Amino acid sequence: MMDIREVSPGFAVAPQIQLADMHALKERGFATLICNRPDGEEETQPSVDAMREAAQAAGIAFHHIPVSGGAFPDAAVAAFRAVRRGTDGPVLAYCRTGTRSITLETLANPDGIDRDKRLKRAASAGYDLGTLRDTLG
């Protein structure tokens, strides 16, 4: 069962989704998926290629912006921001637990909102990103 957490209108995060979830995601209106997991992070996770193929077969755009080890390189943040700003329709970002995805959203700030509102959105979705407060400026 998918654990989709709405962060803002048109954007949600989730823990790992499965190949079989694609048609349900399309029915829920998602236009784009962003995978924030490196391929092969866990033996049981579907490969990025399989996820991309399943998403595209369901009519959903797919982007792979992997981050790991608690590092969020500027290039990954910029790529995430570009996808979010360049996408028409709802976006779902996922990783193992959703934390990397919500962190990228918060750092990328595609909606141009202030720090406290970004942290509040994350908290409302069930993610405490208070440790980012000082880096968000």
Q: What do these coordinates show?
A:
The protein is of the alpha/beta class and 137 residues long. The chain has a single domain (5-125), classed as Protein-Tyrosine Phosphatase, Chain A, CATH 3.90.190. 38% of the residues lie in helices and 15% in strands. It is built from six helices and five strands; from the N terminus they run ββαβαβαβααα. Strands 1-2-5-3-4 form a five-stranded mixed β-sheet, sandwiched between helices. Strand 3 (32-35), helix 2 (48-57) and strand 4 (61-64) form a beta-alpha-beta unit. Helix 3 (74-85) crosses helix 4. The protein is globular. It starts with a strand and ends with a helix. GO terms for molecular function: hydrolase activity. Pfam families: BLH_phosphatase. Residues 3-108 form the Beta-lactamase hydrolase-like protein phosphatase-like domain.
In what range is the share of β-strand residues?
A: 5-15%
Number of strands: 5
The average pLDDT value, as a whole number, equals 95
- Rg, rounded, reads 14 Å
What topology, given as strand order, has the largest sheet?
1-2-5-3-4
Give the tally of structural domains: 1
CATH superfamily: Protein tyrosine phosphatase superfamily
CATH architecture: Alpha-Beta Complex
How are the elements arranged and paired?
Elements: E1 5-8, E2 11-14, H1 22-27, E3 32-35, H2 48-57, E4 61-64, H3 74-85, E5 91-94, H4 99-108, H5 115-124, H6 133-136
Parallel strand pairs: 2-5, 3-4, 3-5
Antiparallel strand pairs: 1-2
Helix pairs in contact: 3-4
Protein name: TIGR01244 family phosphatase
GO molecular function: hydrolase activity
InterPro entries: BLH_phosphatase-like (IPR005939), Prot-tyrosine_phosphatase-like (IPR029021)
